[in-house]
Amino acid sequence: MTKDQIIAEARRRADRGLQLRLAGMTYQEVADSPRPDDSSKTLFNSAQAALMAVKKAMVRAETDEEIKDSRDLDVARTERLQRALWTRALQGDEKAISQVIRLMEMRSKLLGTQQRPSAPEMKAPEGDVVDELARRRGERRAAASD
Predict the structure, then answer these.
(1) I need a labelling partner for 86 at 20 to 30 A (CA). Which of 33, 42, 53, 118 fits?
(2) Contact 78, 110 (CB under 8 A)
(3) Using CB atoms within 10 A of its CB, is residue 54 exposed (0-12), middle (13-18) or buried (19+)?
(4) Measured between alpha carbons, how far is residue 65 from residues 56, 87, 112 in Å?
């Protein structure tokens, strides 16, 4: 087995140990439980080994959840700020437009949905967005004055 495979197997065993501990088993019972991949072997050599592995799995699980919670909070904040700026941006406020674009980019990075252009010419200049919003604003004003 490679080093990566050994680490992955240890994590799987630790995660299984955490599941069993959360189900109410003692550390000795966790250690004595059969391995999912080889029932002739126990999950851990001792209660102490089970305790150490379960603690590591708990830290990993908490960290993963904390990262997700933090990301979700940041995404909610960017969405709230964007909603506050949206009307001004649609009315052609260039500062609001710039801020909305930055917020959209930030949210995309947080969610991991940001796509990199394959070539520099793929990125549209910011002026195009401003011009389009200004054109729409003019159309709305013209329609309102009729």
Answers:
(1) 118
(2) yes
(3) buried
(4) 14, 34, 17
Q: Tell me if 34 sits within 8 A of 43, measured CB to CB.
A: yes
Going from N- to C-terminal start, the domains of the chain cover 3-113+125-145
Q: Could you give the residue ranges of the DSSP H alpha helices within the chain? A: 3-22, 27-32, 47-90, 94-111, 126-145
Query: Which of 23, 25, 38 has the alpha carbon at shortest distance from 13?
Result: 38
CB 90 within 8 A of CB 129: no
| Residue range 72-131, pLDDT digits in tens | 888 888 999 999 999 999 999 999 999 999 999 988 888 877 665 554 554 555 556 667
pTM for the predicted model, two decimal places: 0.47
**Tokens matching residue 83:** 């909603």
* CA distance between the termini of the chain: 77
Give which of 85, 80, 75, 86 is closest to 112, Cα–Cα: 75
**Cβ neighbours of residue 62 under 8 Å, at least 6 residues apart?**
none
